[in-house]
């Protein structure tokens, strides 16, 4: 149950505005996946689907890009959100499809967006 406040609301007089607050926009950050030889396309596609919600087709295209160029930008977002996604990639775990022991998760960086 919601209780009504005993303090009445006050609004600025007609024609007057509230003072503006100093609003600062945070700069965007890129979440970047780095290539290695310890993870399969299947692993990358499943990881991107689980963490970022990417459909398999987009995951495949990103896996191709990271394989070809050595890195791919997964997301551009706020610094806090980028750090969260980086942590999720790093904690996703080793590749069970590799066919040999995998040293762990993939490497992911965050950098200020240009």
Summarize the structure.
The chain is α+β, with helices and mostly antiparallel strands and about 110 residues long. It has one domain (about 30-110): 2-Layer Sandwich (Ribosomal Protein L30, Chain: A). The protein contains 3 helices and 3 strands.
What does this structure look like?
The protein has a single domain (about 30-110), classed as Ribosomal Protein L30, Chain: A (2-Layer Sandwich). The model has no long low-confidence stretch (mean pLDDT about 90). The protein is built from three helices and three strands; from the N terminus they run βααβαβ. The protein is an alpha+beta fold and about 110 residues long.
Tell me the layout of helices and strands:
Blueprint: E1 29-34, H1 41-52, H2 56-69, E2 71-77, H3 79-90, E3 108-112
Antiparallel strand pairs: 1-2, 1-3
For the structure shown, list the relevant keywords:
114 residues, alpha+beta, Ribosomal Protein L30, Chain: A, three-stranded antiparallel beta sheet, 16% strand, elongated
**Cα-based radius of gyration, to the nearest Å:** 22 Å
Roughly what fraction of the amino acids lie in strands? 15-25%
**Total number of helices:** 3
> Share of helix among residues?
25-40%
Q: Uncertain regions: pLDDT < 50 for 5+ in a row?
A: none
Largest sheet: 3 strands, antiparallel
CATH class: Alpha Beta
Please name the CATH architecture.
2-Layer Sandwich
Report how far apart the termini are: 49 Å
What is the string of helix and strand elements? Answer: EHHEHE
Structure summary, number of beta strands:
3
């Amino acid at each position: 149950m919601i209780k009504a406040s005993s303090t009445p609301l006050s609004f600025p007089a007609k024609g007057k505005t509230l003072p503006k607050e100093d609003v600062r926009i945070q700069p965007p950050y890129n979440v970047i996946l780095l290539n290695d030889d310890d993870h399969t396309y299947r692993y990358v596609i499943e990881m991107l689907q689980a963490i970022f919600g990417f459909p398999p087709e987009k995951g495949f295209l990103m896996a191709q890009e990271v394989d070809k160029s050595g890195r791919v930008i997964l997301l551009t977002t706020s610094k806090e959100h980028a750090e969260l996604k980086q942590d999720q990639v790093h904690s996703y775990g080793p590749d069970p499809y590799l066919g040999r022991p995998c040293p762990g998760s993939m490497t992911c960086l965050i950098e200020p967006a240009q």
